[in-house]
Write a structure and sequence with these properties.
mainly beta; 6-stranded antiparallel β-sheet; 7 helices; 47% strand; globular
Length: 1417
């Protein structure tokens, strides 16, 4: 075909002729080796007159162009001689060697009859470009009738592309894009012709009896043929000889190799025997100095295992001997299981020393071998799909720039005993000598399925035959089993087979279960008129290895498989009774052996007790099915049909007993139980299942305590339950079931994924990205293509394609939709660009991307791209992907998050699990998180479970305590929480929070749904237990008392107390005028020094208005009382009308900042080479109140500073510069002389931490930079403050009452206003305002295009960080478009603007009725 250059699009179609001509085309793949490109054309559409748009041809554009290995064209002309019987029917192969490498083996065959006497055969092949050719190797495999071949000559044309620039391009000096250059660069093919004269036989019985020859180009090569004498020494250990065929490749330095040659003709009649030396001759073009050899056998023959001592090669031309020691097995069942070895030459002295002193030989030569080898670690990940694993033998070949490893068997996985199982990662080591840089790999397996002849004998009794669908499963040792296989292909065959007294034979291909068939499961699926079946026996015949005969195993049954006969079972497990073997002896006779099976697996009887829960509506009328798993196999799914205890099965509070017979399952560890959701009331609350193995009298308990219902809880009707004492892998990140044995076809090994994800998160190589995609609302904006995103960092570092796959139930990015995704990708450093695109390449696959938001929680930033662009072939600029520059994004600081592994342990107590919503708040020394929901995700928070998952938590460490709250809702609202463990994946610090009690209104003594747990880090409790005594003084003012319900929250240096309801006072009538009420709160965690109180009431009762004088809080652990003065109304009709007040602690007197203070400066020198300095460092602090003087941090010979990896501390007195914004750091000579400032002296500083000693505020500066030594003070580095840790004293000092003017602007679109109740929470550096209602009497608020103003009084929150605005979705038209929120601190006059521009509407966009807004400065 003509080379048309880069393919831009294809046209594909059909002529619509014939019946059922319609065609659904998924995709087209075009590989162009000469270009080094593979084109992917996804289509995913009908080409059918009667489907979709009725078109039968379509233009498709490439979604992806993948670079592949670039090949060039070779034309090979082979001339067979005119001699008698010169032609051959064998398979001919060739390999080409050039200055830049060698091609892979090229097979020369086509449809015509090749290599006939006197014929010239021409072949066109694509292969690697090896440069100037210096030799070829050509030969055949010696198979077929008349395999001998007289080769006359070979002509080889090498068609190499040569780039030629057009005159047009030479004239233009402008820079052009890659595509333009490609178009203007003309490709010409240059032809090199080489002739190779052979004129010789390649035959077993002619000439030198060789089947392979190496040829050099005629008339221009200085290379000559050389003869190598190969001495193969077989070891002297027992069983070291081999009957297999042995193959050898010899490699030279820079002159290629001999290719693989079979070692056929030895000086000994019986080759490779114990202690024997076999001598062979190999002819090849001179290789120069030898560097390695590869030797292998094909594992054929009766005893293929081989212990090779060494190989000696004599170069007859140079009279040089090379010694290649091995001293290892080449055997599948010995050593590492490899049957191929690469050997390197060693000095003759080593070999002689070894023969004198055998004791040292293995170690010495192993080291010699290792020094010249490269070890590759090969990790193979099997996909997480059903039946993804394989039991076949897997092979790999690594291809380097110089050579390849040959075919290597992946035999022994370092991680898993059972290799290549679904979702698993296996690790192998491959050793090779000098193959250069890796360029590609080839991996495959031997398709290890084996044929079985299955003969089924139906009994000769009345009604024995069946029309049902009969299936079979074969089990080998260790629970390895085949897939379930139906013996009949269709209903016609079902009617034909399994008649009374019939013998039916089936040959089926199934997975190899090993040498021994331990049991079979045979059954039928019922249904039909005559499904009952009396099975007499089953015989299974299979071939012995290497065609040595066959083995027939008989499985007697002699029982009914019928619902109305015997025990009503339609599935039976059978064990073998006898084995009949026919062996082919060496003399050609058949030896027949019949023997009984010794110790067959026992058939065990399992008593199954199913307990239905004793709650309303717990019983079910549906059909229930059970599968039991043990370490020796499983029962297969069995229907629980006949209860031995009750006529009406599975009723409320009932125990139903069933008997199942199955071959010994070993130790039971899990069950799968389900119902079919049939009948009128299928919903079922299953309490537990108990299984008694009557043979061993072992009992196993499987707890459930959950609904199996399409309407309740998680709406699942199938559960996987683990044995109560089972401590293996249980549930996963997704809560999906896991299994440890190979017979479970539904195994889901996401647990492995979880642990590898945790590992990657710990290393910092993978981080989470949260992506929000908004689709436009124009016509045809939606797409059902797969959307992806690529995050790009500096220097071409980027994530792989992160696919944004829609959740179940959604099949497209719909018009106006907002879709949110969380994906894990490579940590790329500072993000520079983001690519977004989709894989739809047809004109129909258009998508209007309105907006894209990328949140990087570990960096604390959010990038918002307003795109409003088409990603479509036939709209806009025709591109289906687009690269967005980060400079075009709106960048918002949202607060840094740290990744934690969270482990939640639910108590092993009856009904301990829950489906209620669980919320967590974590408190640390540097603040607290907001309340975060712990997702149920299927099977989490169930009785006796440990559930682990990764969460993003604010940077508040060290942790102090945790608050857990449940909403007490759901079908199982009670929860027994044992403990929660948080592991910081950055620094590996572990904090444990222990509770060991119910969270329940009924089962908790206090009826509490909230608990607080102190952090225990390194066995130390981080908070003390205390009792808080609150004295609340109501003022002596007319109408001061209240009948409303009062609540408050205490705030201190260790977080807050949570809401405390002031219910039980020492006075019968609380909060009366001029009265002191006392409240006790025992078993609390001490908050340390208190800084504020938030107090409010619910405005209930006859006279709810309340005038509060003060609150005193006594902490019994600290023996300290804190006074909170109020002297104000909490009343709608008094003062400013607020029902909530924040009171500052009167103990914390407002400290006047002194003019002078002290600063502690800590420097951390990098732990890297040349980081340290012997010179001095100077620093200047830039603060909000001014600039400090220069502080000189001196180095001296007595006290060395700034050494590699060292942390040095300095203290200086200075004027107070206020909050430090930046520092200037310089590096100067100790002696102060200009001549000392050398150009190549640096100090590499990692970090500088400055502490202001009066208030103890810490300022962190992340440097990670080299500072050069300079005499002049003008040369320095400036670092901005990366993080501030404000001390409690500093925060408490700034807590003064402030009024915040809050302006809310509603959008101008139709229907933008709301009638719902609106609430706001303001977050600042010093805390939050709490949730405040935005109300005004007799005003219609939040109307379209209107601005509403409110005043909220709180204690000063410092710099505002975010706002949460929400509504309760009440009223006729609750949907609301918020334009923006503006908040002004009336004390400082600083206004912070929080843009929104989003709907708070359940029926629009992402359906949220709350938004978190971040400031724009």
């Amino acid at each position: 075909m003509m080379d048309i250059g880069k393919i831009n699009r294809i046209l594909i179609g059909h002529d619509n002729v014939g019946l059922r001509s319609g065609w659904f085309l998924a995709s087209v793949q075009i590989t162009v080796p000469v270009q080094g490109r593979q084109y992917m054309f996804p289509c995913n559409r009908w080409l059918d007159k009667d489907e979709a748009d009725g078109r039968v041809e379509v233009e498709v554009y490439p979604s992806e162009i993948v670079p592949i290995e670039k090949l060039i064209n070779y034309e090979v002309s082979v001339v067979t001689g005119e001699m008698r019987a010169a032609g051959t029917n064998a398979k001919v192969f060739m390999q080409i060697y050039g200055e830049t490498g060698k091609t892979e083996l090229i097979i020369l065959e086509n449809r015509s009859n090749n290599f006939e006497r006197g014929a010239t055969d021409i072949f066109k092949r694509e292969a690697a470009d090896v440069g100037k050719i210096y030799k070829i190797r050509i030969g055949h495999d010696g198979k077929g009738i008349g395999d001998g071949w007289f080769l006359e000559s070979v002509t080889l044309k090498r068609l190499a592309p040569k780039m030629k620039e057009s005159d047009k391009k030479k004239k233009k000096k402008k820079k052009k894009s890659d595509e333009e250059e490609e178009e203007e660069t003309k490709v010409e093919e240059v032809m090199d012709v080489y002739t190779f004269v052979a004129h010789r036989w390649l035959a077993k019985d002619e000439g030198d009896k060789e089947l392979v020859v190496e040829l050099v180009p005629d008339g221009e090569s200085a290379l000559e043929e050389n003869t190598y004498e190969v001495h193969v020494l077989t070891g002297s250990v027992w069983g070291s000889g081999t009957d297999a065929n042995v193959f050898l490749s010899i490699y030279g330095i820079g002159r290629g190799d001999t290719g693989e040659r079979q070692l056929k003709r030895s000086n000994n009649l019986n080759k490779f025997e114990k202690g024997q030396v076999d001598v062979f001759t190999v002819k090849a073009i001179d290789l120069g100095e030898l560097k390695k050899l590869r030797i292998r056998h094909d594992n054929s023959g009766a005893s293929p295992s081989w212990f090779l001592e060494r190989v000696e090669i004599v170069d007859l031309k140079e009279s040089t001997t090379y010694y290649f020691p091995c001293q290892r097995w080449l055997a599948v069942e010995e050593d590492d299981g490899q049957i191929v070895r690469e050997l390197v030459p060693v000095d003759e002295a080593f070999v002689k020393k070894d023969s004198e002193n055998d004791g040292q030989s293995l170690a010495t030569l192993g080291l010699e071998q290792k020094a010249k080898s490269t070890t590759y670690t090969v990790k193979v990940k099997t996909g997480d799909k059903k039946n993804a694993g394989t039991d076949a033998n897997v092979f790999i070949t690594l291809y380097g720039t110089k050579d390849d490893t040959g075919t290597v068997s992946l035999k022994a996985s370092k991680i898993n005993k059972n290799k290549f199982e679904r979702g698993k990662v296996d690790e192998f080591t491959v050793e090779s000598v000098d193959i250069g840089d890796l360029k590609k790999i080839k991996i495959g397996h031997d398709n290890k399925v084996v044929p079985y002849e299955i003969t089924v004998y139906t009994s000769d009794i009345f009604g024995a035959g069946t029309d049902a669908d009969v299936f079979i499963v074969l089990y080998g040792s260790d629970g390895i089993c085949t897939q379930q296989k139906s013996l009949c292909l269709n209903k016609r065959e079902q009617r034909m087979y399994f008649e009374r007294n019939s013998v039916n034979q089936f040959i089926v291909e199934l997975e190899d279960v090993g040498d021994i068939i331990e049991k079979i499961r045979i059954g039928h699926k019922g249904g039909g008129l005559n499904s009952g079946w009396h099975l007499d026996r089953v015989a299974i015949r299979r071939l012995l290895p290497k065609g040595k005969g066959s083995e027939t195993v008989t499985f007697p049954c002699e029982r009914w498989l019928a619902k109305s006969e015997d025990d009503g079972e339609i599935v039976r497990e059978l064990v073998p009774s006898d084995i009949f073997t026919e062996k082919l002896l060496k003399d050609g006779t058949l030896k027949q052996i019949e023997e009984e099976v010794e110790d067959p697996l026992e058939v065990h009887t399992y008593k199954i007790s199913v307990f239905t829960g004793d709650i309303y509506g717990a019983g079910t009328d549906a059909n229930v099915f059970l599968n039991i798993y043990g370490d020796l196999g499983d029962t297969g799914e069995r229907k629980l049909s006949k209860s031995e205890t009750n006529f009406n099965k599975f009723e409320r509070g009932q125990e139903d007993t069933f008997t199942i017979q199955a071959v010994d399952l070993g130790i039971l560890y899990k069950i799968k139980i389900r119902h079919d959701n049939s009948m009128f009331s299928p919903d079922w609350f299953l309490e537990k299942v108990e299984i008694l193995d009557e043979t061993t009298e072992e009992s196993f308990i499987f707890l459930c305590e959950r609904w199996l219902s399409k309407k309740k809880e998680d709406k699942k009707i199938e559960r996987t339950l683990y044995e109560q004492s089972y401590d293996g892998e249980r549930n996963s990140l997704d809560g999906l079931s896991l299994s440890l044995s190979s017979q479970d076809s539904n195994t889901n090994l996401k647990e492995t994924k979880k642990s590898s994800l945790v590992k990657a998160a710990e290393e910092g190589s993978l981080i989470p990205y949260h992506i929000t995609v908004t689709t436009g609302i124009e016509f045809d904006s939606s797409t059902d293509s797969r959307v992806y995103i690529i995050i790009m960092g500096p220097q071409k570092v980027q994530t792989e394609r992160l696919w944004l796959d829609l959740p179940e139930g959604k099949d497209e990015f719909a018009d106006g939709s907002v879709e949110k995704f969380s994906v894990w990708g490579l940590e790329v450093g500072e993000i520079k660009k983001v690519e977004v695109g989709h894989d739809g390449a047809t004109p129909e696959s258009c998508w209007l991307l309105e907006e894209l938001t990328v949140i990087v929680p570990t960096k604390g930033v959010m990038y918002n791209f307003v795109c409003k662009c088409w990603l479509a072939r036939d709209k806009g600029d025709g591109l289906t992907s687009r690269i967005l520059n980060i400079l075009d994004a709106d960048c918002v600081n949202i607060g840094l998050k740290i990744l934690y592994e969270v482990t939640v342990v639910t108590g092993d107590i009856e009904s301990g699990g829950t489906d209620a919503s669980i919320f967590m708040t974590v408190f640390g020394s540097n603040g607290n998180t907001e309340e975060m929901q712990l997702e149920k995700n299927g099977d989490r928070f169930e009785r006796g479970q440990e559930d682990s998952f990764i969460m993003e938590i604010a940077d508040i460490a060290p942790l102090r305590k945790m608050r857990i709250r449940t909403d007490g809702k759901g079908t199982r609202p009670h929860w027994f929480l044992e403990r929660i463990i948080l592991k910081n994946l950055t620094n590996q610090e572990v904090a444990t929070f222990t509770y060991g009690e119910w969270l329940s209104k009924l089962k908790n003594a206090k009826g509490s749904l909230v608990c607080e747990m102190p952090a225990i880090i390194n066995d130390e409790q981080m908070m003390e237990d205390t009792t808080y005594t609150l004295q609340v003084k109501t003022s002596d003012v007319g109408g001061a008392g209240t009948d409303a319900n009062v609540s408050l929250i205490l705030f201190g240096e260790n977080g807050d107390s949570g809401t405390l309801a002031l219910k039980e006072s020492n006075k019968s009538n609380k909060f009366e005028r001029n009265q002191m009420d006392e409240f006790n709160f025992p078993d609390m965690l001490s908050l340390g020094d208190l800084c504020k109180v938030r107090v409010w009431h619910d405005n209930k009762g006859i006279a709810p208005g309340w005038h509060l004088e003060y609150i005193d809080v006594q902490d019994s652990a600290m023996d300290k009382t804190f006074r909170f003065q109020c002297d104000r109304w909490l009343a709608k009709g008094e003062d400013d009308g607020q029902l909530i007040r924040e009171l500052a602690c009167a103990n914390n007197d407002i400290l006047e900042l002194k003019e002078r203070t002290a600063y502690e400066i800590v420097t951390v020198t990098s732990d890297r080479e040349d980081a340290e300095t012997k010179e001095n460092i100077w620093i200047i602090l830039e603060g909000k109140l001014g600039r400090s003087k220069e502080f000189l941090m001196e180095n001296s010979s007595k006290k060395r500073r700034f050494e590699r990896g060292a942390t040095d501390t300095f203290q200086f007195s200075s004027k107070n510069v206020g909050d430090i914004a930046a520092i200037c750091v310089g590096h100067c000579p100790k002696d102060g002389k200009k001549s000392s400032a050398k150009a190549d002296v640096f100090w590499h500083v990692q970090e500088i931490v400055i502490t202001e000693m009066e208030l103890c505020n810490k300022y962190f500066f992340r440097c990670n930079v080299k500072i050069p030594l300079r005499y002049k003070r003008r040369d320095y580095k400036v670092f901005e403050c990366a993080k501030v840790t404000e001390s409690f004293a500093s925060k408490a000092r700034s807590l003064v009452p402030v009024k915040y003017e809050t302006i809310v602007v509603t959008g101008f679109e139709k229907g933008a206003g709301t009638d719902a109740n609106v609430f706001i929470t303001i977050f600042g550096l010093n805390g939050d305002s709490g949730k405040r209602a935005l109300k005004q009497k007799f005003r219609n608020l939040f109307e379209r295009g209107k601005t509403n103003r409110f005043y909220l009084e709180t204690l000063d929150m410092g710099e505002l960080k975010k706002v949460r605005i929400e509504h309760d979705n009440s009223g006729l038209a609750p949907g609301w478009l918020v334009e923006r929120v503006e908040i002004t601190n009336s004390a400082t006059g600083v206004t912070t603007i929080f843009p929104c521009g989003k709907w708070l509407d359940e029926n629009r966009g992402d359906g949220l009725i709350w938004r978190e807004l971040f400031p724009r400065y």
